[in-house]
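Troubleshooting: if your tokenizer reports a length mismatch, compare your output against this known-good record of 115 residues.
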Amino acid sequence: MEIAFNDPDQDEAEVLKRSLAVRETINTLRNLIKKRTKNKDAVLYAEGDNILFRASYQQSLISELQKVYKEKIGLNSSIGYGKTLREATIAIRLAKARQGDSVVGVAVKEQVDPK
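Known-good structure output:
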């Protein structure tokens, strides 16, 4: 969405159109996640162009989410995953820093105090 606001030639109608497309696509992705995970409570957060969900790692689901997003919105997507919210947060930041469609997984190893 940030692209829409940075374009000096963008008008309000185009921003609204893009906003509606993102909202519809996020709803489609939410339903896809629920169906593929067989868990109606898998999606924890779905606002703007972000989704946070809990599921076991499934490469086919990740690929399908990116494919649907690209087809409906025409933009690249970033996916970050981890076993904890901390790991997922780090992963999504790293994924967004990359160019194009990206998927990043993170596992943080806690250091044990030698004392």
